[in-house]
Every structure is written in C-alpha cells, then in structure tokens.
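Q: What would this chain look like folded?
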Amino acid sequence: MKVKNKKEFDYTRLQIKVLFTLIGVIAAFLFALALMYFLHWNSIGGRWITQVAADFLQMGFFVVQNMYPPFFILLVLLICAGLFFIIRAFLRYVAKPLSDVEESLGMLLIDNAEEIRLPEELTAITQRLNAMKQTLERRKLEAQSAEQRKNELVMYLAHDIRTPLTSVIGYLSLLEEVENMPAEQRKKYTHIALDKSYRLEKMINEFFEITRYNLQQIQIKKTDIDLYYMLVQLTDELLPILSKNGNTAILHADEEFMIYGDSEKLGRVFTNVLKNAAAYSYPNTEIHITAQKSDDTATITFQNKGDSIPPEKCAAIFKKFYRLDEARTSDTGGAGLGLAIAKEIITLHGGSITVESHEQITSFVITLPLSHTVS
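A: My prediction, written as structure tokens:
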C-alpha cells in the first residue's frame, strides 16, 4: 500500500511526549549529580579522585585539581548528548512497528489489497489482521450477494404484479361493460378477479416482508406455551393450503406438551416450515409433525415426501432471499425469507433448525430448550 503522506503514521506526538519525559528524568539526574558534586565530590571525594588522577597522569595535584571541574562537566554533557541521540533512535525504532500496524489497518478497507506483511516480531498481529481482512471481504461478498438477490426478487415481484393486476382490471371491466352477462359467466369472471386479487395481496405482503426483515430486528417475549394446541391450531389454519394438492398433516405429540418461548414468533416459524413442506410435497401425501422431549430439549420435526434436496442446497436453504427452486413460478415461490426468518427466531430462543433430505424424504428438525433460564 502506498501512503501519500507518511507523516500520518510517524507518531510524532507520542515520540515527543516520551522524549520530554526522558528529558525530565535526565534533568533530575543532572541536578542530583551536580548536588553530589558540590556537596561531596568537591571535598573528600574530589580530593581523592584528584590525587588518583595526578598519580596516574604523573602531573601535579593542583594542575589536575584545576582540570577536574571542567572535565567533569564536559564528560557529563557528552554522556547526556550520547543518551539523547540513543533515546531518539530508540523512540523511532519503537514507533516503527506502530506505524506499520497503522498502515496495515488501512489495507483492511481496500478491495483486492495484497496480503498484510509486518515484521517477524509482529507475527501474531499479522495473522490477526489477515484473518480480519478475509472476514471483512467474505462478509462484503455475502452482503453484496444478499443485496443482489433482494433486488432481483423485488424486480421479479414488481414484474409479476402486473399480470394479476392486468387480469383484475380486465375482468372487472368486462363485468362493468357487459350488463346482460350470463350469471354463470359473471360468476366465473368474479372468481377469477378475486383469485388474482388474492395473488396480488400476497405479492404486496412479500414486499412488506422484505422491508421488515431488513429494517427491524426480531424481538422475542417468552411465556409458557401449549405446544400441542399450537400445532393443532396451525394445521387447522393451513388446511386450505394443504388440501389444495390433497396433502394432509398428521400430528404426533403429547397433549400435555409445554414449552417456553415467544408464541407469536414460534407460530410464525412453524407456519413457514409447514408451508414450505406443503409447497414441495408430492400431491396426496402426508406431512408428519412430531414433537418429543429429551432431557431439557424439545424436538419438533416436520417430515414430508417430495423430491430430495441436494446437500449443497440444504446448506444454503436458510440463507436470506434464497429460493430452493429458482425456476419455480411466482405463484408458488415466495420471497426466500420464510426459512431465514425461522432460523433467526429459533437462534434467538437458544435452539437450532436443520434440514435433512434423502430418498424423497425431507425433514426439518427444530430443537428448543425447555429451561426458562435460556435467553
């Protein structure tokens, strides 16, 4: 990565702060040294050192004594100057890795940037930054894919809305224009217009579903739930959808089956799963709903008979805006949000939802904790 202004990463303020701190320490050291010199070295200690230096240099005592003070001061100044440059170089050395890390952080936001490389002593930070970079890139691709799917679905729905709307307008126009239309024909046209209106309503609801999913976080409020009664009520409400292709729902559960959760949200989950099972079941087949307890866990299974789902699609079926059969007509396919929302709700309950499919049998398995302590 090329940086236009390198001063952005030189940590000058940090260096100045540390430098002034060290200067203060050195000043205190010099003050203590000068105090010692005037109070001690200028008397007994000074005379002893002067005598040793005179004997070593083979010079007179008073000559060396006159040389001692300026020499001492010069020596101290030289030591301080040396310390200053050593500390200055040390600060630059310490700040360099920080500058490298700062520069690497900028690379996290650059598309298709090369792999981050830092000095060997920063290997752990290098690995962490590269892992973050890969995670950000993966999330960005997932977000782009979800956004593209959403846009495509909105486009498909907007396009498909024209068909039922045109039909409704056309048949209502005929009913208004032809005053002496036979009763049987009038009834037929009215039924067609009503059917297309229901389809139009469903499409509009899907638009609202997409908007709610993107703008609103799901909140849950838990209470005690009679699971058996909820599932019985669910099968009754969806009877028209099931009977449309001759399917029936068979419930296998204890009548005294209680769970703890958000009844409205879990009802939505079970509805989405059962509607999905009905949409992909063979005509005139049974859909089995089984509820069992195991230790502190409730397991609810929806099993239907239909074309097996490939393993790669089983892994993606709970993704947002994913449609199992992209070629499926808009009359039967949804917005691809039902199972994604179901997974989010179950996760918020501390449970899980999975799908298994083989030999024309597909099973959605939902597990929920029975404990009230799970949030």
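Strands lie at 223-226, 248-252, 258-261, 286-294, 297-305, 352-358, 361-369.
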